[in-house]
Amino acid sequence: MDYAKTIINGYIEIHRRSCRRHDCPIKYASRRSVIIQKRIVEITKTKLKKFTIQQKILLEIIHKLYTLGINMFPRNTQLRIGFGLFLCENLEMLEVGLRQFSRAESLKPPLDEQFIIYRYKKIIQDEIDSSLTNKKGYENTLDFVKKAQFNKKLKQLKRLQEKSTQIHLEFWSQLQEPNPDLVKLNDTGSKINSSMTQIEKIWNDLMKISDQQADALKIYGRFLIEIVNDEEKGESLIKNILTLDKSSKKQKEMLGGKEGITSETPIIIGDCDIKRLGYIR
């Protein structure tokens, strides 16, 4: 921590001496720390008490670099996507970040960037809508960055569970042989222990992000019941889903029953039939 702080202080000092721009954020800070704090608050419109003065300076430097870059290359969609993510993730400026994504979308980016833009626009808009409807405290959603992290971890959990299921099946198959090979059984048992350790780690990471997501509880609960044979823990997770469902229904009733997903949400379906493999409809 002290090493990182020294590096940051060194960067700020070198930049202060070498930068020739009159509007450099570090020069404002060197004149009077109160000015930089006011300028940061004007930019973010959010609470930044958790940041040190050095971190606030770096935030404004990054903001300034993005602004200069976009002024020089106004049609660069990657710059606008990066700026949008920075605004939403670091400065919690969802509406301003959403405008950057919308501007990037209007520049007709390539297909891969269109998917990125659509995904984050949907997440940000959902978060904005949620914050508007949950002003009185009915908030049970993840912010857009955590939601992306959660989905990534959930995919990892699914892959590990599929792999662990195959190892469990292999173990039981070997055990049912007339003369089981103890060496193979020991090796397969070690693989099971290793896979379960990885699964528990990913599961703990998921719970740190959010422990109130029904999909994750259902996936892990079914795995514990059907594969690991841990009915007590699995059924406990399934019961939590029922509690969440009741809470969700009650919340929807209080908020007027508005749904988060509408028929306007586009869906791409890929056919997996061998004769129509890859056909999109």
Features:
single chain, 281 residues, mainly alpha, Methane Monooxygenase Hydroxylase, Chain G, domain 1, 3 domains, 11 helices, elongated
What does this structure look like?
It is built from eleven helices and no strands. It is an all-alpha fold. It has three domains: 1-72, no CATH class; 74-133, no CATH class; 144-254, Up-down Bundle (Methane Monooxygenase Hydroxylase, Chain G, domain 1). It is elongated and about 85 Å long.
Summarize the structure.
73% of the residues lie in helices and 0% in strands. It has 281 residues and is mainly alpha-helical.
Succession of helices and strands = HHHHHHHHHHH
The total number of structural domains is 3
Mean pLDDT comes to 76
By DSSP, the count of extended strands is: 0
* Alpha-beta classification: mainly alpha
The fraction of residues in strands falls at: under 5%
Rg, Å, rounded:
25 Å
Shape: elongated
**CATH topology group of the largest domain:** Methane Monooxygenase Hydroxylase, Chain G, domain 1
- Name of the level-1 CATH class of the largest domain: Mainly Alpha
Instruction: Give the helix tally.
Output: 11
CATH architecture of the largest domain: Up-down Bundle
Rounded to the nearest angstrom, the distance between the terminal CA atoms is 52 Å
Largest sheet: none
Low-confidence stretches: 32-37, 39-47, 135-141, 254-265
Percent range of helical residues: over 70%
Oligomer classification: single chain
Could you give the topology of this structure?
Elements: H1 2-18, H2 25-31, H3 33-44, H4 53-72, H5 77-89, H6 94-106, H7 111-133, H8 144-175, H9 182-209, H10 214-228, H11 231-254
Helix pairs in contact: 2-3, 3-4, 4-5, 5-6, 5-7, 6-7, 8-9, 8-10, 10-11
